[in-house]
Amino acid sequence: MPGRIMIVDDAAFMRMMLKDILTKNGYEVVAEASNGQEALLKYEEAKPDLVTMDITMPEMDGIAAVKEIKKRDPQAKIIMCSAMGQQAMVVDAIQAGARDFIVKPFKPDRVIEAVKKVLGN
Amino acid sequence: MEDNFDVSHYLGVFIEEAKEHIEGLEENLVKLEKEPDNQDVVQAIFRSFHTIKGSSGSMGFQRLAEVSHLLENLLDKVRRGEVRVSSSLIDMLLQGVDFLKRMLEEIAEKGQEPDWDITEISSNLQSFGEKKDKKVEEYWLTVKLISDCSMKGVRAYLVINRLQDSGVEVVKTVPPLSDLEGENFGQSFDLLVRTSLPSTEIIKIVESVAEIEKAEIKGEEEEKNLEEGKEEKEEKNTIPSAGEQKITTNLKKTVRVDVERLDSLLNLVGELVIDRTRLEDIIQRLRDYQELAQFREILSDTTTHIGRITNDLQMEIMKARMLPLAEVFNRFPRLVRDLAHQSGKEINFIIEGEETELDRSLLEEITDPLIHLLRNAVDHGIESREERIKQGKPSQGKVILRAYQEENSVVIVVEDDGRGLDIEKIKEKAVKIGLTTWEEVNKMSEREIVDFIFYPGFSTSDKVTEVSGRGVGMDVVKRNIERINGQVRVESRLGVGTTFYLRLPLTLAIIRALLVKVRESMYSIPLSDVVEIEKVEKKNTYWVNRVLTTLFRGKTLPLLELGALLDSQKCNFTNDEGIPEILYTVVVSASSGLAGLVVEEVLGEQEIVIKSLGSYMGDVRGLGGATILGDGGISLIIDVASLLWKFSRAGG
């Protein structure tokens, strides 16, 4: 049972890579956003089943975006995309309600495992 | 543990801590009723019950442990969504908290647990939410991460977080939490969890986290080995709860200190302040001896240094004695909720500025007055639902309790959007009970009229309560606040609401005061009450209603002979002959207005340490204590508020 996913990352390259990994495994990428602000708007529009959320972004960072999204939709499922050394921020994001996290550089099977588990399939 | 293990000297800490939890519980339960979905609050409540259970068990208080255990269980059901948050649930839990509270009070008094029957409350708690209580069990769980898992620490955190979210209690971790967070572990870690969920469910929860290779419950044999460790943990209950807290919050390092110790420290600093004043006095006297000039200088330097250090020391101890107002405020949501329930009103109670700090001795003093004000606001201030709707107000009344610091005082505001004070009714009542006449009252400002509610005679009459909506024990409120050098002011608009302002000093013990001389005695007037020092010439004085007055800032100022006020025997200001050419006047302010205290000599200002007069002297109106001066002499401290009250009674 695949799902509808929104990718949030300020780097177009990262978005492309994630999109490839996800679509190859049967998931549908329904929206992309390059910062937290945009993510909020697109989340409302697309109502994805799951969001992958980068941490460091302009305008509104990933942690603030998690908080905002969770405020509007407490059921929202969000996976954080973290770079090495961002431990503290990942913990913040989990406290804010993120369900899991993946660490860059991404390995396709890790990404899929996390997505699968969070979506419960 | 062994029978001879003596826990009695932990009793103080135990009770103190349990009380704190109970206060927190009352606050959180009321909050939960407002925000039934707030999981943080549910967790906090759960933890408090859990901690009380653990420590009372360790203290050997079986009944206390049993009841808190049942409360914890009930909360666990809430946490897992088996029991919905409802008014009746909150009532049940509050009832349980009340029981714990009463029991604690009893224990605090007698030193041992009362043999009360707990079967009724126990069965009520147990049967609440009908479902039969599933057995809560503990499991040791080993979690193994995949071999190249990145950010192991965060991963472990996520596992614990996920378990807690699912209502599984994580009691202990191996290695300890700090090592887990610091990634000081290999590929796996162990968790001691407590839950009523089946073990398969726990594994499912853990394995729903990514990059987990395997989660398994430890085998029977191992469990037995660990049993001993578990028992040890049960007895030293503080370990798991401390660990739990670390997961969510970073606790500051603190030490519990007996309040008495702080009090005696402050006393000692007070002595130092006195000694410093004496040293300054010695330096003054040395001025006459030229040959000692050199020593005088050295002494002067040292004294300055001591002075600075005493100041710092004093500040630090003051700070240590300061407690956030939350200590007092936290119990009010419960109070307001109960009062609102009783009177069938809907009230939105808002607390602001509870982090404002106040000396702990003051904190105790303001509790009763605040309860009084809140009770009045709910009972008489806020109108009934129907009445509010009729007047076009929101059906829900609003009561705000706000605190903030303003220079050297703390201001506490109790505000309601109720019916307000009816000036006309107050006027009527004041005249009727002979506090004033129609002629006088019609000349009064609204503020002066409103102040009548603080008169003793005004408050005792029940009828006024109904008519004016206020007045129950307001004189007591005012007296209590003034006793701690505070002031009370009220503002009100008919139909819009009433606001009480309490202005309190930050601390009681050491103040700056003006030293004056009257009839060969030295008196100290707190500088906070002094407006100005005036030299009034006899030709500028007038008689008004047989009281000597002068003009001060365009207004009449009564001139009162301090000496006469204090021993109330010989009054010189009866006719023109008794008045000296120059009147040294200290203009003081109290809530009742300004007054000039005429003294013989003004000696200067000084820091003084307030020593109580002792209870055997009784209530000495006009005096607020005594202090020791630099030369070892004693000076009585003038309590301006009660002194002026005395005058207004005598004069009126």
Most extensive interface between two protein chains, with residue counts: A-B, 18 and 14 residues
CATH class of the largest domain in chain B: Alpha Beta
Q: How many domains make up the coordinates of chain A?
A: 1
- How would you name the oligomeric state of the polypeptide chains in this document? heterodimer
Q: Helix count of chain A, per DSSP?
A: 5
Q: What's the layout of helices and strands?
A:
The complex is a heterodimer of chains A (121) and B (652).
Chain A: E1 4-8, H1 12-24, E2 28-33, H2 36-46, E3 50-54, H3 62-72, E4 78-82, H4 87-96, E5 100-103, H5 108-119
Parallel strand pairs in A: 1-2, 1-3, 3-4, 4-5
Chain B: H1 11-34, H2 39-59, H3 62-79, H4 87-110, H5 119-127, E1 137-145, H6 152-165, E2 169-174, H7 177-181, E3 188-195, H8 199-207, E4 212-217, H9 220-235, H10 238-248, H11 259-286, H12 293-321, E5 322-324, H13 326-329, H14 332-343, E6 347-352, E7 357-359, H15 360-381, H16 385-390, E8 397-406, E9 409-416, H17 423-432, H18 438-443, H19 446-450, H20 456-460, H21 462-468, H22 474-483, E10 487-493, E11 497-505, E12 510-518, E13 521-526, E14 530-537, E15 541-544, E16 547-552, E17 555-561, H23 562-567, E18 582-590, E19 593-599, E20 601-609, E21 623-628, E22 634-638, H24 640-651
Parallel strand pairs in B: 6-8, 13-22, 17-19
Antiparallel strand pairs in B: 1-3, 1-4, 2-3, 5-7, 8-9, 9-11, 10-11, 12-13, 12-20, 14-18, 15-16, 16-17, 18-19, 21-22
